[in-house]
Design a protein that fits this description.
The protein has about 220 residues and is an alpha/beta fold. It has one domain: Metallo-beta-lactamase, Chain A, CATH 3.60.15. It has five helices and eleven strands; from the N terminus they run E-E-E-H-H-E-H-E-H-E-E-E-E-E-H-E. The strands form two sheets. Strands 1-2-3-4-5-6 form a six-stranded mixed β-sheet, with helices on one face. About 40% of the residues are buried.
């Protein structure tokens, strides 16, 4: 007798830091990853050229996430037999949520809100914003799909809905993840004291009754 698949949520980074969350939601042969930032640790004194993959993992600046990173970076092939459907998402521009996005395997689609998708390549035009991609020019920014807000994105058995939110980064969004047995809400960075508390309250209403709420705190 084959057991029924269940939703699995794995936290690879961000549980003990301010920023840098990397969270995977998986169901059967489908999985998604959010966000793709780097933990802010200026006391290490690292320069961009020092931030190779091994160093990033050593200091837990990014999560050691299997089957998402570019094999040219990790030296390990992605298990495409295990995972038939994959996607990633970035909630907003800040580096603790976006800096490592070029490390994502090129074949895995990366989604973000329309403003975030438009602004990240501009911010990285001199190659000083994001970590570099393997075998690409310094100022390369990998493709980002501008998600249509409030419309479902299907990743195998998982459905993603990118919703408007409010933060001090233009274009910040949140994410509602639905699997056949669970609903998970990821707020990204969020505030109610900004210019658009109405967007946040609509987001809260859309996620009401979720099975898991993932919200970042900095206290």
């Amino acid at each position: 007798m084959t057991s029924k698949p269940k939703t699995k949520v794995t936290f690879y980074n961000g549980l003990t830091t301010i920023g840098g969350p990397m969270i995977e939601v998986a169901y059967d042969k489908s999985h998604v990853l959010f966000d793709l930032g780097e933990v802010y640790r200026p006391e290490l004194g690292l320069k961009m050229e020092d931030e190779d993959f091994a160093t990033l993992l050593k200091y837990q600046l990014i999560g050691d996430v299997p089957d998402f990173y570019d094999p040219k970076v990790t030296g390990k092939e992605i298990d495409h037999e295990r995972w038939e459907h994959s996607a990633a998402y970035i909630s907003h521009l800040h580096l603790d949520h976006s800096k490592a996005m070029n490390l994502l395997a090129p074949e895995i689609p990366l989604y973000a809100g329309p403003l975030t998708a438009a602004l990240l390549p501009v911010l990285n035009r001199d190659g000083e914003f994001l970590l570099p991609a393997a075998d690409k020019p310094k100022n390369y920014t990998r493709p980002i799909i501008a998600a249509k807000l409030n419309e479902p994105i299907h990743v195998g058995d998982i459905t993603l809905t990118v919703v408007p939110s409010d933060h001090d980064a233009y274009g910040a969004t949140g994410l509602i993840v639905k699997t056949p047995d669970k609903t998970i809400v990821h707020t990204g960075d969020i505030r109610l004291h900004g210019y658009h508390p109405d967007w946040v309250r609509k987001f809260m209403a859309a996620g009401e009754g979720c099975d898991m709420l993932i919200i970042e705190g900095t206290g």
